[in-house]
Amino acid sequence: MRCFSGVATAFLLAFAAGGALAGPDGPPDNRPVRAGRANQPDDWRLSAGSLVYESPGRDRVNIHRYDAGAAAPVRLTTHRARDQRPRWSPDGSKVAFHSDLAGSNDIYVIERDGSNLRRITDHPGQDTDPDWMPDGRLVFSSDRDGDENIYLLNLESGRLIQVTHYSGGRTGGPTAAGDGRRIAFSSDRLFSWQVYVLDLGNGEIERITGPLPGKCNPAWSPREDRIAFMSGGDLIGTDLRSARPDGSGTRSIGSGVSNNEDPQYSENGRRLVWVSDRDGNWEIYEADADGSGERRVSRTAADERHPDLFLGSPAGRD
To answer: What is the pTM (predicted TM-score) of this model?
Structure first.
């Protein structure tokens, strides 16, 4: 989700400027294709594991995967649509994302090689921001009830549960704790974007950021000890911070006078990835979970957004 009206939407406006995106143009071609723009040398330096991320083309935004040591990324989707916010499944075998492939945004899942595209939700409302629960359920935001709220979906039974019940404002960007009993999300329900934690057992919700506005897009470490989030706004730019689940111990992540956004921990909580525009376009960076040992991962002519890193040995490796 986009929590800021300026810098955060510039990415969408850049590729929307060429005109409205068309509908799907046939079945997806999942053969590996080089990411980035023609005649521009790309440089990828990922320390370990596999990254998924989104990157825009002239009339689309597609999902890509880069494996450490590979010569180039592979494109996992080729739809003429906006395929966004990819997230690895807990075992690294699948990727969930939202897409307007069929008109409104719905949740989709593919295998790690881009095959077996499945449409998980089918609703005229906007279903966005998917993430995986440790038990394999999906958590996402949706405005299907008229207001944007958080939902849990069991992929096996199809059971859908609404877990927040806000009226007015926006709510999204859910991320699960490693114990599967709590969910962090961001909301502007009090006219200011802040990060909240929901206890699924008793339904209690606690705000963990504030009082200054502009806190959003949380990422909960699987080790359960930290929640990373974006902080800032249009005039001062965005940076990354992390805090304990109760909101204490806040510290900064990332360096440089720039916008740092889209934080996400690896599935084991050892590494953190995000994007920064410090060199003119959105590139991926990685660091240890505490923000130390920062290094640039991508150097391309294209933009990369919403990276997610899997460090283990994925089931169904292609």
So the answer is: 0.87
